Amino acid sequence: MQVRLLGPVDVAAAGVATEVPGLRRKAVLAVLGLHPGQIVSSDRLIDVVWGDRAPATALNTLQRHISYLRDALGCKTSIVARPPGYLLNLPGEATDAEAAQRLIRLGTTSSDPARALDHLRGALALWRGRPLADVTELRWLGEQADRLDHLEYEATRALIDVRLTLGEHARLIPELEQLISARPFDEDLHRQLMLALYRAGRQAESLARYQRLKRDLADELGIDPGLALRELEAAILRQDASLQAHAPAVTVAAGSTVASAPAQLPLAIPAFAARQGEIARLDAMVAGQNPASVLIATVSGTAGVGKTTLAVHWAHQVRRSFPDGQLYVDLRGFDRDGALVDPAVALRGFLDAFGVAVQRIPAGLDAQAALYRSVLSGKRVLVVLDNARDVAQVRPLLPGSPGCAVLVTSRNQLTALVTAEGAVPITLGLLTDDEARDLLTRRLGEDRVTAEAGAVQEVITQCARLPLALAIAAASCVTRPEVPVAGVAAQLRDSAGTLDALNSADTDTDIRSVFSWSYHALSAESARLFRLLGLHPGPDVSESAAASLAGLSVAGVRPLLAELIQANLLLQPNLRRYRFHDLLWTYAADCSQQDEPEQQVQAVRRLLDHYLHTALSAAMLINPHRDPIAVPELSPGTTVRQLAGKEEATDWFTAERAVLFAVIKRAAADGFDRHVWQLAWAQQDHLDRGGHWEEHAANLGAAIEAAGRQGDQAAQAHAHQSRSTAFARMGRYDQAHTHLSDALKLYAGLDDRGGQATVQYQLGWLANRQRDHEQAIRHARQALRLYRASGKPMMAARALNSLGWAYALHGDYRRARPRCEQALARMRELGDLTFQAGTSDSLGYIYHHLGDYELAAGHYRRALDLFRDLNDRYYEADTLSHLGDTHRAAGDIRAARIAWQQAHEILSRLAHADALVVRAKLDGA
């Protein structure tokens, strides 16, 4: 059984349709069908179905309509009475509109054009004419019909892009010309037609089509074609090869652009030697790559055998073959603390690298992986996945676009990747004597190697031909040229031992002697720093964090870091950031046991204080309106990074995100509970705004436990409240409600009215997300009352705006207006610019629906000015879109198009899905 909305409203079962008689009955069914699985209040149903002409008996009549519809649907539980209204309760996809949206989503995220074609054609086949055809005289349902019309149109355009991908350009030309006759100013249709004409060998006609549209836009609307069309014309004029080779990605709005091609590869090793056979094999695979497939290669071998060095060296050599970007992530599959990088975290990093706006990133690993494949569709990108633990960590990160290449390194063989995905396996063994000698020659020089050939051979033997050990031994020779190679060989021989701490089943080489000798050759200060760095949880460390570990200034620690780099005991993948090879990290941690336990505790405390105090400073720069928290006194010798402003604070959080995640785990393990919950508190705004909700939820879970161990109920309550936001962002509303309930109980136990107010405010926000606007109104009222009682005027003003906005969403604009106006006045007094912008936008929306378009436009312009001052590009575009709606309603189509065009350009640059919505407005104007 299914309710059908994509045409006349009726009910269908087993392919047989049953008509529902009566405008009001159909309207009730349509409203419930447009909210499948959601409660629609009786008041809302009456408002939509009868409007201002609702009779006194409307509630009784509604109940009779519900009874009739249950019979028509063949089940008494098909519509459930649930206060304050009713819920459509059909198994599976309750409506054809729901089925269409699912198919469109599958079609626009599929990396397989053939599957995308099937999904999109299946979706479009569900339309039977004008949606909601027999109830559109009712205002709200007429608006919903327009929305479903736009949905059909978006699916049509997506289908055309897929057909262009599949080479149907000639067949599409007459269809596109017919569509353009109905939408003469639709630039995306013109883009598709120009591309189809060009690919069909009709270049002159394609360019003539552009010139004709350019004249029409200038004559009728006074504007020029958009950036996408201008770039396409230029590409056609130069006969750009990419027009034939790559079709536009299905899921990106026309004209969308992303950030410049990412270049994430670490620094190349200048003295790389050997492995010429493996390099040649990789080169041959790229040269002979099937243009219809993704190249995948795995490089496996024991620890220290040079897998990462080979991968990075080769990736730099071939990067020009992948002009759309090179992605790199260290998956930390064999870190000593087992802190694997979650594939979802790696995916977020890749999506960020391509400039994908956070609002466009869905919740859930599968959905994010689908978006990632869509972003890479039609591109040539090299992906280096370093230090993978297993195939499960790798698969979500594989692109689906032909022309891409993936290089995976791992200590494991990853046989399943070879079997299922057709990866080409390359196994690295120990170097041959000749390869080892070549490596030493490149680092020590031909003359020195020739002069001490016997000693060089002994060094090779003592290092067991392992590249990492040879590199460290060579660094010892270079940094101490007065010591002959024979002396180095003798010291290696004398310091032989076993690296018991590694306890690695795949390590068949004893290199502790190499590590030990190099470590003991360090100055006392550098050796101490080496040991202390072993206490850091990774994955890398900044200069100021290293300084804090050692209790030194940044200037004082730099020469010590330089000595470790010269000795090849430390890597420097980026400017002013350092990391260990994982074997050396384990060895450094081993050496740290030489220090007194009290010294280790003090060093860890300095490190945690560095991160905590810097993070709190950054948090207040990003959001100066937060209530500051009391922090532990700074340990002597701790360096706090001084941040100049909001942008630098954001950059610091971005650079340290993975480190802070590891630091919180380390703090919890070592009993620094206050640092745990305060570090989670400090990262709240950055992780929320960046869309890193899984990490945010994990941090806050640790914070709840840590605050509980401390008996700090206020900290526990705040962590519960913040964790609810993370779960709500991911669509996990039941968990969000559970955490808010826990927070409310804790705040009530503390008699903290401000905390209770914040929970009520959050509950209102959550209710609006779930479209339960009546409940949102109740929570906003409670929040307002409690904020006023607790003496928090700024939050009270925000709650007043929240109340007005909930009324507006509920359709009660006359109650919404005075509340938002009062809120705006208070915010101006208090200097709250962020919420002045949001409240001005709310008032624009309210006055628009009250029919006062002049006042609406004024409020939207004020919001625009503020969002621009705040550099909030998404909400600037959102407000421009609303302003365009108001201009259209006022009859000024030209002004509406200008506002929409500006909004569309911003959203396209952000690669945001709302660009499609604005594009539909432009096309329909």
From TrEMBL:
The keyword Transcription regulation applies. Gene3D superfamilies: P-loop containing nucleotide triphosphate hydrolases (3.40.50.300), Tetratricopeptide repeat domain (1.25.40.10), Winged helix-like DNA-binding domain superfamily/Winged helix DNA-binding domain (1.10.10.10). GO terms for molecular function: ADP binding; DNA binding. CDD domains: BTAD. It comes from the Bacteria. Residues 1-90 bind DNA. TPR repeats lie at residues 837-870. One of its GO terms (biological process) is regulation of DNA-templated transcription. Keywords: DNA-binding, TPR repeat, Transcription, Transcription regulation. Residues 1-90 form the OmpR/PhoB-type domain. Belongs to the AfsR/DnrI/RedD regulatory family. This is SARP family transcriptional regulator. It comes from Catellatospora citrea.
